[in-house]
Amino acid sequence: MNSLRGAVPFAGDRYFRLSTNALVRYQDAAGETLLDAMAALEQSPGDTRRIRRMVWAALSHEGLTEEAAGDLMDEIGQTEAARLLGEAIRAAFPQAGAQTGETGGNGASRKKRIP
C-alpha cells in the first residue's frame, strides 16, 4: 500500500496520483488546467483524448507515454479507469468535494469550519 498523500492504489504497487507535478505535466501537455478539463468533460463526456491525458497525468510518475496510459485504460476497462481517476481528482481537490458535500481524499488539507 502506498502512503503518499492523494495516492489511489490499484494493481499492487501502482497508483493514480494528481500531485502538483502531475497537474503541471497535464497543463504543459494539454494547454489547459485539469480543472478546465473537468469542466470541459461536463460538456463533452466522451472526449477520450482528454480522459486519456488525465489518466496519463495521474500515472505520470511512472514515466508512461500517453499511448501506454491508453493501453492501461484498455486493460483495466474504461469504467475502472474513470473510477480511479475520479478518486484521484477528489484526493487532489478535497475542498471541491467538501463544497459539494462529497467525501474523498484523506482530509489532511481540510480545516475545521467555524459556524
> How would you write the strand order of the largest sheet?
1-2
Give the beta-strand count. Answer: 2
Which term fits the overall shape? globular
Q: Using only CA atoms, what is the Rg? A: 14 Å
Count of helices?
6
Largest beta sheet, briefly?
Answer: 2 strands, antiparallel
The residue ranges in which pLDDT falls below 50 over 5 or more consecutive positions are 102-115
N-C termini distance: 37 Å
- Mean pLDDT across all amino acids: 85
Percent of residues in beta strands? 5-15%
Please estimate the helix content: 55-70%
Q: Structural class of the helix and strand makeup?
A: mainly alpha
Query: What's the order of the H and E elements?
Result: EEHHHHHH
What does this structure look like?
The protein is mainly alpha-helical. The chain contains 6 helices and 2 strands; from the N terminus they run E-E-H-H-H-H-H-H. Strands 1-2 form a two-stranded antiparallel ribbon. Helix 3 crosses helix 4.
